[in-house]
Write a structure and sequence with these properties.
With 231 residues, the protein is an alpha+beta fold. 18% of the residues lie in helices and 28% in strands. The chain has six helices and twelve strands. Strands 1, 2, 3, 4, 5, 6, 7, 8, 9 and 12 form a ten-stranded antiparallel sheet that branches. It has a two-stranded antiparallel sheet with strand order 10-11. A hairpin with a 2-residue loop joins strand 7 and strand 8. The longest helix is centred in the C-terminal third of the chain and has 14 residues. The chain is globular. It starts with a helix and ends in a 17-residue tail after the last strand.
Length: 231
Amino acid sequence: MSVLLRSYFSSMYPTHNITVGGLHAVPRQLLNAVCLRLYIEVMPPLEGHEDSPNLVFFKIDLSRPAGATIPFKSVRLGMIPDYPQLETDGYVPGALLTLSLGYELPGPRVCRAFAFTPLSRQLTLEHILRPIIENRLQHFEFDMRHTYAHGYRDFIYQAFSLLIDRGYFERSLSYVWPEDEPLIPGPPTIKNILGKQFDRDGRPRDEPISKGYFRSYVRINDGIPPYVCER
């Protein structure tokens, strides 16, 4: 795992590997925490490499359950390459990780973030994780090409589509961060958001989702936008 990737999943709190341990890897206090809002956080391209794909993760603000002893305010949830050397082409295994965080709202290194509101005030982190695990999305591989890992948007799009189908979140986002320019053209939907690449200033351009490889899952909406249209 590269230093850059480790930096997105390192803090004073521990990281939990769901690909390896499933729900049992996550402390019960976190699983019982209620979701206040969910962000799709887009990280900027590498400095000097505007062609490098955005890293994209979930960031979930949580209400701590009564009696919780872990001082968390949110978690980052994301798939990252779990491979020591990323200089080779081909598929490399991913790891689905959660990281407790001590702050709400988007993180300091995010170039754009898109907030979605839960449809239930009782939606917990366990509710969010269960359909992802039950459909085996945690077993995912990145497509390594020219030292860049492709598949971040692919995983997030498929995972969030499952959550929408379960009726957990609104289909349209509630707000965009930062709220000023540049504006995001098109409808305020997950399909439109993840069909774009963002530069370091948060300016979007249309770019179909690059696929990774799901070992045990059949994609929703494969072959139509925001993927490359095959019809």
